[in-house]
Amino acid sequence: MVNRKELDPEDPGVAFGLQLRQLRDVRGWTQDELGARMGCSGTHISAVETGRRPSTPRFARSADRALGTVDRFQRMVQAMKNTALLEGFPEFVRQETRAAEIRLFELGIVPGLLQTEEYAAAIAMGATRRGAITEQQAEEWLALLAERQDSLARTPPPMVYAVLDESCIRRSVGGSSVMKAQLDKLVAFAESPSTVLQLAPFELGERRAFDLPVTLLTLPDRSQVVYSESAQQGRLERDTHFVQPLMTAYHQMQAEAASQAESVAMISKLRKGAL
């Protein structure tokens, strides 16, 4: 059984499970008894209570009916749905802010941890204009991004390895002045003793190890987790059998990518308009 003290009530999914468990405890029901009233198994109830399984609108409706809570759980699920953060991302951020090593791969845009404020704002504005997120969600995302960037200043700082597909520096975001400042920040990032920046040039072709963004974290206890996402879903994975092959692929990609010196030279030439 998961230790209740390990659960983070600030995680919306965990908060849902905690409230479900508290109301079940008040009524003196076991997980199997609540499951019988909701039309699911006690194992399913346990997984939701401990945050191991996300709640769904259908599950929330059943919980409200069984516990007599009108629409409390339905509103909680709706609130989670309305957030600009993908499933799995809040938990990933909590792990990221304590990681000893962070390995990034990104394509298309500069990764969030390396973005300037203006570049990030342009990305958020574009998503808002497309109707992908609301203005409130954009503000939420930008505020969280600022917190994530601030966390890199902790002592000791994490070692950050970043491999960027060449498309990250070729794609113009926010106009020329925003892009020039962003490229300057990438060069400054590479100068830190706790960072390594490499570009994966277009010539890599099929030798590029990843087709989607991925972040690999090495935690203080040397355990590793990986976060990957598509346009609609994020996934945080801890299983060693899943994580280790990705770590190996990342190392292989670093070997294939341009060196940091070569990468900085490419960025600097682009910054001057020579490419």
Architecture overview:
The protein has 275 residues and is of the alpha/beta class. The protein folds into two domains: 4-82, 434 Repressor (Amino-terminal Domain), CATH 1.10.260; 89-271, Endonuclease, Chain A. The protein is 51% helix and 12% strand. The protein has helices at residues 12-27, 31-38, 42-49, 57-67, 72-82, 89-96, 117-129, 135-151, 167-170, 176-190, 240-256, 260-271; strands at residues 101-106, 159-165, 195-200, 214-218, 224-229, 234-237. It has a six-stranded mixed β-sheet with strand order 3-2-1-4-5-6, with helices on both faces. It is elongated, with a radius of gyration of 22 Å. Mean pLDDT is 87; it is low at 1-5.
CATH architecture of the largest domain: 2-Layer Sandwich
Return the average pLDDT rounded to an integer. Answer: 87
- Helix content percent band: 40-55%
Total helices: the number is 12
CATH class bucket of the largest domain: Alpha Beta
Order of helices and strands: HHHHHHEHHEHHEEEEHH
Structural domain tally: 2
Shape summary: elongated
Name the beta content range. 5-15%
For this structure, the CATH topology of the largest domain is Endonuclease, Chain A
Residue windows where pLDDT falls under 50 for at least 5 positions: 1-5
* Helix/strand structural class: alpha/beta
Short description:
This protein is of the alpha/beta class and 275 residues long. It is built from 12 helices and 6 strands.
